[in-house]
Every structure is written in structure tokens, then in C-alpha cells.
Amino acid sequence: MGTVCKRDTLVKHNPMNTVKDLKKSDPLGWRSLRSVGGLFAFSLIFSAIMAPPIFNALLWLGRHVDRLKMLRDVEFESVVSRCFLVLMILGCIPFMKGGGMGHVVDLGFQKDISWLKKVLKGLSTGCLTMAGLFLLGWGLNAYTLKLVLPVDVVIKLSSYFVGALIVGVLEETFFRGFLFGVLRRPLGYCGGLLLSSLIFSVIHFAKPNPAIGVVYGHWYSGLALFPSMFRFVGPSYHYFPFFLTLFFMGMIMCVFYDLHHHIYFIIGLHAGWVFIMRTGKFLFERNPNSYLYLFGHSSIIEKSYSALIMALIFSAGVLYWRRSLKRFEVVC
């Protein structure tokens, strides 16, 4: 008989073990599902309450501060959706215990002196894979470089980089650390992976779509949006590849989380993808007469079939790697 082989990548505390141990006291995992449902209801209600005063404050700043005049064009429904996402992400911390998690370590934040190295490794992986699509499109004349001042490039790329890191930390903490970790308890590994990836994809499309716009936020304005809170806006041909791309990206990051038992790498991976997506949109202009079926009609590459193909290839490679590692763990 072979001996069990433990990889060096394993850490002392595996957040997935918390899920396994709690199956004894709650075999069906209903407490976990109630935690997710409670977080969703909490975020929905309080985003509707918080949005009106925040919206009015933004409008006031836009009218009285010349440098912030762009805030005059802010949409109320955008404020509601942003409040909802922020509450969902930050609210996972107080709802952790209900989901069977007692510490931030259970969200994937392991005590590791090499955490920065792992973030940078994920960041470089994300940047290289996404930049490859833009370089391919540039080589095929699907994209052309814009004439941009060097100063503008530095300012924009710096803001994109900081924003991408914030997105990576917040979204990976919620979607992989909390949501995937909680859902895999009652649904198993595959069920948690598929459902959390589906939610990750769907939530990028959800946006309130009221029949009449809001020009001043009353206390009830957010509550009045409930009937249209999750109506998909403007269905279009490019939403199909975009939806699937997000789904497979979510699946990729779930697999990496399961393999590494921490979210440092996928924070970097997510941030790298977002950074290059925004940078490419800023630096490149779409050539409408070249490879429409592959790169779409705009410079938003994540809505193209090329991004979907990349996500599919990446998913296949990661799943094959996981299968090889799991097989290696059983018998050496």
C-alpha cells in the first residue's frame, strides 16, 4: 500500500476543514444557506435605505464643487447597486459565524509571511493571460493603439491598478472566501463551485432598471426599486460570451482556492485581469472591420469570444492540474 503524500503547498489551517467538521452538527447545511439568505436580505434592505442620502450628497457635491461636477450625472440606480455590492462584500464578516466560519482565516486569509509573493504571482498570471488577448488582437489588426499623452497613461494606469487591487480583495473575500466556502458545505465541492460561479456571473449583470429616473432621493426611493432590482438591462448578443466568461473565471478561482487553501493568489489573479481589461480599453481602439466574431464590436474585450476561449482553455488546464494533484495526493 502507498502512503499518503502531502504537498508542500498545504498550510496548517485548511478553511475547508471547518466545512467538513461542521457537517456532523448540521449535515444538511441549512444554517449555511440561511446565513447566505440573511446576508442577501440584509444587503438588499439596507442598500435601499442608504442609497437616497448618499445619492443626494453626491449631487450636492457635484453642484457645489467644480472639480466634482461629474457627480451631477450619477444615476440613482447605480448608487443602489453599488451600495448593495459593498454591503454584500463587507457584510460577509458578521455573517461568517452563521455560515460555519469563526475567524477571518476561514475566508482564506492564512497567516503566511509569503502572502505578498503569492499575490504578485497571481497578479502576473492575470496580467499575462489577459494582455495576451490584446496583443493578439493588435497583431491581427483588430485593435489599434490610441495617441495618449504619457502623463495621462501614468495617471490612468495608477488609478486602474489601485482599483483592480481593491476589486480583487473585496470580491475574492466574498465570492470565494465566504460564498464558495459556505455553499460547498451543503452542496459539496462541485455544487458550491457551480452555484458560486453562477452567482458571481449573474451579479455583474444585475442593475435596477426603473421606468422613471430618480432626480432626488426620498426615503422610499430605494424601496420603490425592488420590483426592478434584478432585471437584466439591455440584452445583447455580446452578453452571452460575457456571461460565460465570468462564469468560467469564477470557476477557475474556486479551483485555485481549493488547491491553495488561501485567497492570496486569486486576489492577484482577479486584480491582474481587471487591471489589463481597463488598461486595454484605455490604450486600444477597436477596428470595427476586423475579426468581429472573435473580438466583438468594442474594446471591452471581456465581452468578446476571444475572452471566452481564453477562459475555457484556462479552465481546462486548471481542472486537469487539480485532477493530477489530487491523484498524486492519494498514492506516491
Low-confidence stretches: 1-12
- The tally of helices reads 9
- Largest sheet, described in full? 2 strands, antiparallel
Structural class: mainly alpha
Rounded mean pLDDT score: 83
Say what oligomer this is. Answer: single chain
> Kindly, what is the distance between the CA atoms of the first and last residues, rounded to a whole number of angstroms?
10 Å
Please give the share of residues in helix.
55-70%
Strand content: under 5%
N-to-C SSE string, H for helix and E for strand: HHHHEHHHEHH
* Largest sheet strand order: 1-2
Radius of gyration: 21 Å
Number of beta strands: 2
| Large-scale geometry | globular
Domain count, please report it. Answer: 1
Please give the structural blueprint.
Layout: H1 15-22, H2 30-64, H3 76-90, H4 115-139, E1 143-145, H5 150-202, H6 239-260, H7 264-283, E2 284-286, H8 292-295, H9 305-330
Antiparallel strand pairs: 1-2
Helix pairs in contact: 1-5, 2-3, 2-5, 3-5, 4-7, 5-6, 5-7, 6-7, 6-9
